[in-house]
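Instructor's aside before we start: the two examples that follow are unrelated to each other. I chose them only because their records fit on one page, so don't look for a connection. First example below.
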Amino acid sequence: MFALSQNLTALDTLSMDNKPQSPLFILNWPALDKCILMLSLGILIQTAWLIWKLFIYLNPNLWVYVDTEYLKNFLLINSAMPPLLASVILLCWYLRKSKHAQLILPYVSIFTYGLTMIHEAFLVGLMSPASSITLVLSVMIGLLLFKRSLVYSTTTVIVFFFSIIMYATTKGILPYAPIFINTIDTSSGTATAFWVISMFCFGLPILIGGFILIEVLLSQWRQREKKIELLSQIDPLTGLYNRRTLYGFLLNLIGKKYSKPALHSLILLDLDFFKKINDSCGHVMGDKVLVEASRVLKSMVREKDIVGRFGGEEFIIILANTSYKQTSLVAERCRKELNNLVLHDDHQNKLVVTASFGVTHFDATTRDIDSILKEADQALYHAKDSGRNQVCHYWDYKEQNV
């Protein structure tokens, strides 16, 4: 019926569900748990690179494409990388409840992760596709998981090391991509193929792992943003639509053009003597009455109808394409059901809940919302002046006062 009505069930679920967020919701993880996730990705990458080096080392026919001395040395260094990352993971896990560790270890974790990536980037070339992919995806993942100040500060230090290595390379102090130093032969198609396949092997782990993690994080981010948007439309106590959202529904009805003239209705109701309940039984009991009244009202209307809390003990029901007779029946049914609501205070004294109802109708020719609310409000106060716990329609009130 309305643009937002399809979110009604979701709103109710979100507002009334007090269960904690799923442990799989990564964005809400503590910082050290996120560090463990990042370091685990680093172990996966380092393990994949270690497998590549072992494969080359165990196949002597491929030694013509690599510097075997560098290969052996880097094989030993690479073997130490997964245990190094694992030790930081254990440290994060062991100290996860320490406040000081929560401040310091994220820097240590990201910096350690970055150093292991620098080592492999130097090995295959700082400007190689594998190094570029690793750097970009690592920064993206870091920005999604951690505070920007943490990521930018550690990235600045890592880029500083990158710059030193690049400077040393340009000055001939360090070789560029030393593991491929013997394969720089542009006339050799086989050597080029070996380099391309090597880049593929080095870039694939971070490409697959990074994109999967980024997709999960972005999906959860969108889910959280949607939840925040939905929660902004409801009253946190009752789970009903709030005043701002109700205005949006009314504006939508006023501005919507129908093929046939459509008559809409608005029911404004106010719980009788609600202040006495708060004063005598306390605000906790008052909140309980509001929640139970909300539940009753929702159960008495159609799924497409709109029920909202207008403020305090006032509620609004919006019915589209509903006649005078139908609206009066709905209002009377709500009144009776509220009157039959059985509640007890802390001393097991029965609380009687009644409400007064003001009803009005409007159509697309209505110019503003204030006039609709004013009519319903006048009918509501006439119901209260007439003894409360009854339904008054504005048209009837207007005829009596002509």
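Example two begins here.
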Amino acid sequence: MKANDIILYSDMDGTALTDWSLGPVVPEENLRLIRRFVDEGGSFSVASGRQAGIILRYFPGVSFSAPLVCGNGAVVYDARSGRFLRRILVPQSYKRESLEYMLSRPEVWIVAANERGIWQVLTGDPAKDAGLKTVRHPGITAGQFLEQDFVKVVYVSEEARNMEWVRAETEALPSAGLVCALQSGPQFLEVMERSVNKASGVACARAAAGMEGRTLVCIGDYFNDLAMLRAADIAACPRTSPREIRDICQIVTCGNNEGAVGDLIRQLKLW
């Protein structure tokens, strides 16, 4: 197998990026080997929960010949043309119910994302609104949350142990059948329209780029990467991933802090 036979999709947090305690940054070894992979004819792109503008800033000098998959699959963005190819919104009925749920739960906050950015949804209670320490984003009012379009609603709790009951309770909301929920980290439960996942986003991106015939190699580290890894011809993950992720992957790389994507490219033995 050669580089020009492959389309490689990488997750960001916990995979291409170091831990937050180290930046986060893309290790230089990742950048060096990604650039060489692309120079040899390979197609590299990213499938992440992040927005396109944020993704691009982390990869200086890297050419994305395949579209970016953002918002865990809700958004597909072609960096070459600057066009959004896909944008799937969270249903309005679910947004209303998620807001009511947050207002009833002191331990739970919501952040909402579209293809451009991410915001904390404010309750109007200064003490409650200031209690979210895990993530810091500009605030929007409850009214703005309901009026504007979003591709992702994220429940956040300061205590990871709370997420089990947050998931159970939000799955009982009346409109829960219209959405799907993916845990993207110990303290984050991300909710999108029910057809959304990284696998469907990657399939849309491959079709748009005319690359369905290439071998699909994917690397990710967490449960929101499962669908993408299962759809890959070759699935990989960092050794720091949970066992459930490692068990479905053909390749296990070094940890994300040491340059997991670069290690994957080395293990593919392309040159």
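The longest helix spans residues 92-104.
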